[in-house]
Amino acid sequence: MKTLNKCAPLTDPASARFGARIQFELPISLSVEGRALGRGLIRNASISGALIETALELPLHTNLVVTLTIPGAGTPPATRSFDACVVRIDPAGFGVEWRDMACADITDLLERAAEHHAAD
Q1: Looking at CB atoms within 10 Å, which of 1, 72, 81, 88 has the fewest?
Q2: Distance (Å, whole) CA 69 – CA 50
Q3: Consecutive sets of 10 residues in the chain, 120 residues long: mean pLDDT of each?
């Protein structure tokens, strides 16, 4: 059995990135099959996925739920959960692809994160 080395990025050739990546830092919680696994930070995101920094080690193709509170700039914060799939192993964590790409909640997250980041 081959062991995953967190220092060597692995990519699923079927994964694709769409949309501009927005850099920000947003705390999240991660769960699999209704079981809380741990915490992490979204470092950047787009309409198709995100880079998650975490100490958790999950194999490629793991289905998970990313729960976060979307920051508000003039609007109240909003807690949302997004279904995702691990598509890339990164030295700092992993990349996920959203199951519902470009949905209203994802675009709201990106808009609010961009506004919040610009206000800093």
Answers
A1: 1
A2: 15
A3: 34 54 94 97 96 96 95 79 97 96 90 72
Report H helices in the chain. Answer: 104-119
Instruction: List the one residue out of 86, 30, 35, 84 whose CA is nearest residue 58.
Output: 86
Domain 20-119: which topology?
A: Thrombin, subunit H (2.40.10)
CA-to-CA distance for 5 and 95, rounded, in angstroms? 15
Total-model pTM = 0.80
Compute the residue count for the chain: 120
**What is the C-alpha to C-alpha distance for residues 11 and 68, in angstroms, rounded to an integer?**
25
Give the Cα separation of 16 and 99 in Å (integer): 12
